[in-house]
């Protein structure tokens, strides 16, 4: 099949956190709403379009947001609630779409290539969007184009609560007048560098020889140039809620020492949580497994608000072990698994009252990346495992 015949849909829940809060409280409709940590050192996690008109945006210090929009309604976020609604949207998509990727808590990509032969891609995607809005009450914006980059940009242009199709012949005309910051991979530093060269629009970037961009920005520069030319062959990665990462430990001697077991669980959680943060992923489900000395194996799982933080995951795993361990027999093995993985930065940190905690995670992760994952452990974590992994 010709690659230009691909049909890729991008769906994004508009102002997701705020939209969910408005479903719980209709009096928030039409009002500026700001969500995040409410302490003096809190950070904005999300805000309504009404608040954005005052200059408020995500990751802004809450103190500054209060100065810019003093009349806003300020709400501390509820990740459990948001995760529940995210999963509702994913379930609807999973029941309808042939291939989809859950890119983050509030956005999905769908590959509906070939469906135009039977239904018409635009009509099918539009009906799916209407179904999500109808069944969840959430506003959804949609982009449809030949690839993921153009579809994501189209979604941004369709907001709020709209949809936009960019057919293959129209891709360059659509992209050309837009600022370079609209390209998903163009961060603030990259945009600043491009601006110093007089490159402010995607159309201007497209005219620069690719070798020049590559010398300036390396391989990422060449990728950026391709995106500016509407070239993106990256596939929609099929999402599987059971896709997971896991680890387990077999004891040298079977044990009933729960203190030791909890210490090992903490260490394994640290290991996996670091892997999540390093790959910019979050987990929405934890599973704990125990194997008794007679080789009977039992497991128990729990859904969680999407997270990659040790201090959330460790207590959840310990509680699952407490619920699992009912037979008072010797234990041979314990294991944990994180599943329902999605891409994205940790949202929960924006609701934390203590930015020092977030800073601590960042500092520890920097040390681990530089000197190895085993360089630092929590005080309750054993430096070495008993046997194997």
Structural class estimated from helices and strands: alpha+beta
CATH architecture of the domain at 244-371: 2-Layer Sandwich
* Oligomer classification: single chain
What is the CATH homologous superfamily assignment of the domain at 244-371? DNA polymerase, Y-family, little finger domain
Q: Which geometry do the CA atoms define?
A: globular
Strand order of the largest sheet: 5-6-1-7-8
- Report the major sheet: 5 strands, mixed
CATH topology of the domain at 244-371: Dna Ligase, domain 1
In percent, how helical is the residue content?
40-55%
Number of strands: 13
Molecular structure report:
There is one protein chain. This protein has 389 residues and is an alpha+beta fold. It has a domain of 128 residues: DNA polymerase, Y-family, little finger domain (Dna Ligase, domain 1), CATH 3.30.1490. 40% of the residues lie in helices and 21% in strands. It has 14 helices and 13 strands. The strands form three sheets. It has a five-stranded mixed beta sheet with strand order 5-6-1-7-8. Helix 4 runs antiparallel to helix 5, helix 10 crosses helix 11 and helix 12 packs antiparallel against helix 13.
Secondary-structure topology with pairs:
Blueprint (H helix, E strand, L loop, with lengths): L7 E6 L2 H9 L8 E4 L7 E4 L1 H4 L9 H7 L4 E3 L3 H18 L3 E5 L2 E5 L9 H16 L3 E6 L2 H11 L4 E3 L5 H5 L12 H9 L5 H6 L2 H8 L1 H10 L15 E12 L2 H21 L2 E12 L4 E11 L2 H15 L6 E9 L2 E2 L11 H17 L18
Parallel strand pairs: 2-4, 7-8
Antiparallel strand pairs: 1-6, 1-7, 2-3, 5-6, 9-12, 10-11, 10-12, 10-13
Helix pairs in contact: 4-5, 10-11, 12-13
């Amino acid at each position: 099949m010709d690659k230009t015949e691909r049909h890729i849909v991008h769906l994004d829940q508009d102002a997701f956190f705020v939209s969910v809060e408005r479903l719980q409280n209709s009096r928030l409709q039409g009002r500026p709403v700001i969500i995040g940590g409410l302490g003096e050192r809190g950070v904005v996690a999300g805000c309504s379009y009404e608040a954005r008109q005052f200059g408020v945006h995500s990751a802004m210090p809450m103190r500054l947001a209060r100065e810019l929009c003093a009349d806003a309604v300020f709400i501390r976020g509820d990740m459990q609630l948001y995760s529940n609604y995210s999963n509702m949207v994913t379930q609807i998509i999973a029941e309808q779409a042939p291939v989809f990727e859950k890119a983050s808590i509030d956005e999905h990509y769908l590959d509906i290539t070939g469906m135009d032969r039977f239904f018409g891609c635009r009509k099918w995607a539009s009906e799916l969007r209407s179904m999500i809005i109808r069944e969840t009450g959430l506003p959804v914006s949609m982009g449809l184009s030949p690839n993921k980059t153009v579809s994501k940009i189209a979604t941004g242009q369709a907001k709020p609560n709209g949809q936009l199709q960019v057919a293959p012949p129209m891709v360059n005309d659509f992209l050309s007048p837009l600022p370079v910051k609209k390209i998903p991979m163009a961060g603030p530093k990259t945009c600043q560098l491009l601006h110093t060269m007089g490159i402010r629009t995607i159309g201007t970037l497209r005219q620069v020889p690719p070798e020049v961009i590559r010398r300036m920005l390396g391989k990422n520069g060449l990728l950026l140039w391709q995106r500016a030319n509407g070239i993106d062959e990256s596939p929609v990665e099929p999402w599987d809620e059971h896709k997971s990462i896991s680890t387990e430990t077999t004891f040298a001697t079977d044990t009933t020492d729960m203190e030791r077991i909890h210490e090992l669980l903490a260490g394994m959680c640290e290991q996996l949580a670091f892997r999540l943060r390093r790959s910019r992923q979050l987990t929405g489900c934890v599973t704990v497994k125990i194997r008794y000395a007679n080789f009977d194996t039992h497991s128990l799982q729990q859904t969680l608000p999407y997270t990659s933080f040790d201090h959330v995951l460790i207590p959840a795993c310990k509680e699952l072990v407490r619920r699992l361990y009912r037979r008072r027999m010797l234990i041979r093995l314990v294991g944990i698994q994180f599943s329902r993985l999605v891409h994205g930065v940790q949202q929960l940190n924006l609701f934390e009252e203590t930015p020092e905690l977030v800073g601590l995670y960042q500092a520890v992760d920097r040390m681990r990346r530089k000197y190895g994952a085993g360089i630092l452990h929590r005080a309750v974590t054993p430096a070495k495992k008993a046997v194997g992994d």
